[in-house]
Amino acid sequence: MTETIAVLFIFFILILFGIIFYAKYQQVAFKDKQEELLAARAMDSTLKTLFLPELICSKGEAEPEDNCFDLMKLKYANETFGKHMDDYYFNIFSYARISITETYPNSDNKWVIYDKEKVKEDGNGTLVPNWDRREPTYFIVTIRDENNEQGQPEYRLGYLTVEAYS
Amino acid sequence: MLISKRKSGQMEMIGLVIIVILLSLGMLFMAQFALSEDGKKKIFTRKGLAYSTVSALMKTTVMDVDCTNNYGKWTKPQIGKDILEDCAKNFDYSPGGYSLYTCQGMHSCEFLEKEITLLLNETLGEWNKGYVFRSKLIKATGDKPELIMGPIQSGGGCPKSKERDGSGLFPIHTEAGLVETELFLCD
Predict the structure, then answer these.
(1) Does any CB of chain A come closer than 8 Å to the CB of residue B12?
(2) What are the pLDDT digits (tens) for B3-54?
(3) Residue A82 neighbours by CB under 8 Å, 6+ apart
(4) E-assigned strands of chain A?
């Protein structure tokens, strides 16, 4: 009888350890899953941005160029995105920040085309950030400038940054 | 009586050991599945970034420095279409000899190596990515590829032992032969 009780006791202790271990694992797995979903959203937004007709290098009916943004379109994108942020672009990008930075030849050029941060009102009525993490995704792109003296398109080097807010 | 009790105790212990082994196996499987899912996402991101990097680099126009062509005229060549092709054609005269394009007073191969090192360092290097970039020239079918640029690398490069992804080959047909450019990325 005593032996059976001892064996059962050890058995339940082992089960308890198993449950604790599983619960801890689930906590970590849940966090990982959240991070993964955020990264997937950032990746989705990056792909959508790369193929946005508002930015992509196009020429008449010819096939648009891969990984390329038109400089002229970029300069005016902020205005277009700002006008239709809530009624159109929010459905595509949700809470995120999208920017394009030129690295060559002028590393000072940067265009923030979309910025919708998750915010909440604190006790004083001021808006404070309401997000835990942001996941940046980078993609290297070319920026085509057709507005130059030679009339030949020039390609600058830059990168697209999409930061998704959780 | 005593022997039979001992026997049943032993049986129970064996049963417990089996349960513990089964539980451990279950948890190992779970952990393995969780890890493999994360890997897929990373591979996709690395591949996309590697491809976009080479594609953008090849198109980039050299603008900030003085480049002259054969006739000594100031020009704005593209990295892939003009300078890399010129480097492949005149690789044998590198570094001090003749090349169609001369940028900052350098042979096209020398200039290209310096410029690409700088550009990769300002982007991938800034994001702490390990990378290896190289261009090879294949003069004729069956010939051994000749390294004309690189390997340009950072973070100890990307040996096969590391988890890495490549951009795929970017081929350019030139008078000298086929130039294949490839970039490997690793975390």
Answers:
(1) yes
(2) 666 677 778 778 878 877 887 788 777 766 665 555 555 656 788 888 989 9
(3) none
(4) 68-70, 96-104, 110-116, 119-121, 127-129, 134-145, 154-165
Which of A66, A103, A156 is the closest to B123 by Cβ?
A103
The Cα–Cα gap between B52 and B55 comes to: 5
Q: C-alpha B180: how far from its chain's center?
A: 13
DSSP letter string over A100-135? EEEEES-TT-EEEEEEE--EEE-TTS-EEE--S-EE
Query: In this structure, what token pair is assigned to residue A113?
Result: 């085309």
To which H or E segment does residue B151 belong?
strand B146-154
Cα gap A143→A160, rounded to integer Å: 10
pTM higher than the cut 0.90? no
Q: What share of chain A is helix, strand, coil (3-state, %, to 5)?
A: 45, 30, 25
Question: What span, in angstroms and rounded, lies between the C-alpha atoms of B149 and B84?
Answer: 9
Q: Which two tokens stand for residue A154?
A: 């020039």
Q: What is the CA radius of gyration of chain B?
A: 28
Tokens for A44, please give them: 């989705």
ipTM for this model: 0.74
Which is it for strands A68-70 and A134-145: parallel, antiparallel or unpaired?
parallel
Determine the Cα–Cα distance for residues A117 and A164; give it in Å rounded to an integer. Answer: 9
A14–B60 C-beta distance less than 8 A = no
In three-state secondary structure terms, B155 is coil
Q: Where are the domains of chain A?
A: 29-165
| Residue B117 contacts A, CB cutoff 8 Å | no
**Chain A residues lying within 8 Å of B122, measured CB to CB:** 103-104, 107
- What would the two tokens of residue B38 be? 């994360």
Residue type, B167: S
A104-153: pLDDT as tens digits: 888 888 999 998 888 888 878 788 877 888 878 889 999 998 887 777 88
Q: Say which residue the tokens 């991070």 belong to.
A: A35
State the nearest Cα–Cα gap between B173 and chain A, in angstroms: 20
